[in-house]
């Protein structure tokens, strides 16, 4: 898709897409779905929409990444998986 010079939001949107994250493959391999991650977050304010964005590569803030990672580790703890580190889940650092 060509970037039009008079449409700055188009290039901004493209820079927000980081590609499918390693988190997606890890959750698939462990058999953990988005609902399990949100449920493990408890009252942390994590939504299904944020988890989906994290998996598919829409750039998140560092705070949102921390919430997702904490919830993934909590969900994995129930199934006795080792905790993930940031670089195992994301290939970028949140803005």
Describe the structure.
- There is one protein chain.
- This protein has 95 residues and is mainly α.
- The chain has one domain.
- It contains six helices and no strands.
- Helix 3 packs across helix 5.
- The mean pLDDT is 88.
Secondary structure layout:
Elements: H1 8-15, H2 22-30, H3 34-41, H4 48-56, H5 62-78, H6 86-89
Helix pairs in contact: 3-5
Précis, in short:
This protein has 95 residues and is mainly α. The protein contains six helices and no strands.
Low-confidence stretches: none
The helix count comes to 6
Could you state the order of secondary-structure elements as H and E? HHHHHH
Strand content: under 5%
Rg: 15 Å
Structural class: mainly alpha
First-last Cα distance: 25 Å
Largest sheet: none
Instruction: Write down the domain tally.
Output: 1
Q: Provide the residue-averaged pLDDT.
A: 88
Overall body shape: globular
Helix fraction? 55-70%
Main features:
mainly alpha, 95 residues, 6 helices
